[in-house]
Amino acid sequence: MLMDSLSKEQKDQMLEEIAYFFNEEFELDLGIIGRETVFDFFQDNLAKYIYNRALDDAKKFYERSASNMEADYYALYKD
After folding, report:
1. Less Cβ crowding at N or C end of the chain, within 10 Å?
2. Rounded to whole angstroms, how far apart are CA atoms 20 and 34?
3. pTM, to two decimals
């Protein structure tokens, strides 16, 4: 799974945030099983899309930076 690299503290924080969200938005008190179920759902269904989008954004940033480097390179030429 993509989120397997989370530390225990990071995952615990996410589980707390899930519980808080469901309590605030829906007045539902999720136990640990409910929190884990929601976490697993998002991990299984959304994490890969978020990860791939981040890769696409990084590629666009790199391409812009490379383009700027090329322009800067030619700006160094003497007439």
Report:
1. C
2. 12
3. 0.68
| Model pLDDT for residues 16-54, shown as the tens digit of each residue | 999 999 999 999 999 999 999 999 999 999 999 999 999
**CA distance readout (Å), 65 to 11, 13, 53, 60:** 34, 35, 18, 9
Q: Convert the pLDDT of each residue in 67-76 to its tens digit.
A: 888 888 888 8
Pair 38, 18: CB distance under 8 Å: yes
| Element holding 35 (H helix, E strand) | helix 32-45
- The token duo for 59 is 């590629």
Q: Which residues, 6+ apart, have CB-to-CB distance to 38 below 8 Å?
A: 18, 22, 30
CA 61 to chain centre: 16
CA–centroid distance for 40 within its chain: 15
